[in-house]
Amino acid sequence: MRQIAFPLLVLVVFAGNALAEQEVHWTYSGKHGPEHWGELSEAFVACREGKSQSPIDIVDPIDTDLVPIALAYRGSTTAIVNNGHTLQINAGPDNSLDLDGQTFELLQFHLHSPSEHRIQGESFALEAHFVHKNDRGELAVVAVLFREGAPSDGIATIEASAPAKVGMSKALETLTASLEIMPENTAHYRYSGSLTTPPCTEGVTWLVVEAIGSVSKEQVEKFVAIIGEDARGPQPLNGRRVVH
Ligand SMILES: [Zn+2]
Questions:
Q1: In a domain, 104, yes or no
Q2: N or C: lower Cβ tally within 10 Å for the chain?
Q3: pLDDT, tens only, 103-129
Q4: Any domain includes 240
């Protein structure tokens, strides 16, 4: 018995260390929740000390002449992943965003409930984040907020394919889910922020669509049943300006 137990223990400890180096465990509540993200790893220091963090409460944005978001989503998605923090839909090629004359490719989109961004203090039932990257590695995220009401066809497509277990992935080839989620009118608020999950990296351009989508109570409950609530609270503006 001892002869078997010893090598097993070594194996477990080794696997534990390897895991700790690759991925620090974080959550949305308790000891590993958002208030503690900055203490969980040196790599997460921006979560605690960053001055341009996301999400934010959008209050009194400055009126400018922002052009609508120029999206060209012509490709498909490839897979839907339950990564334990959210349901993430990975994008294939030929889905892009044109911003300030630069092309950003869609990497993935995912969901948060309740919403992370607030508008004039109002929180929403659900928020979708479309994460894009340009060839310099800079990120631009388009956020779409949903109020509780009629069901969303796009969310229905996502939930019909959602893997129930953490770490599971399923093939999902659909163009419609992303297009159905995105409102036609892409007038938006723009500001400079961060990833809303560890490592909370800054320098992210946020485009929060003003038009609010609709999602049913049942759809929100289904998402929360699979993932749990996954929203970081609003972060201080620290003098940043929000334009629209
Ligand atoms: Zn997100």
A1: yes
A2: N
A3: 999 999 999 999 999 999 999 999 999
A4: no
Q: What is the CATH number of the domain that holds 191?
A: 3.10.200.10
The total domain count for the chain is 1
Collect all residues with Cβ–Cβ distance below 8 Å to 2 and sequence separation of at least 6.
none
**pLDDT tens readout for residues 149-181:** 999 999 999 999 999 999 999 999 988 777 788
Our measurement of the distance from residue 189's CA atom to the centroid of its chain's CA atoms, rounded to an integer in Å, reads: 17
Q: Would 18 be classed as within a structural domain?
A: no
CA of 17 to the centre of ligand 1 (A): 28
Which of 72-86, 96-110, 176-190 comes out lowest in average pLDDT? 176-190
**Is the residue at 233 inside a domain?**
no
Residues 6+ apart with CB under 8 A from 64: 243, 244
What is the whole-number distance in angstroms between the Cα of residue 86 and the centre of ligand 1? 8
- From the list 95, 216, 79, the residue with the least C-alpha distance to 154 is 216
Out of 32, 85, 110, 117, which one is annotated catalytic?
A: 85
For residue 21, the CA-to-ligand 1 centroid distance in Å is: 23
Residue 151: strand, helix, or coil: coil
Distance (Å, rounded) from C-alpha 127 to C-alpha 231? 9
Q: Does residue 114 sit in helix, strand or coil?
A: coil
The answer to whether the beta carbons of residues 227 and 82 sit under 8 Å apart is yes
Measured in Å, residue 116 CA sits from the centre of ligand 1 at 8
Distance 129 CA to ligand 1 centre (A): 5
At residue 20 the predicted structure's pLDDT band, cuts being 50, 70 and 90, is very low
Residue 32 among the catalytic residues: no
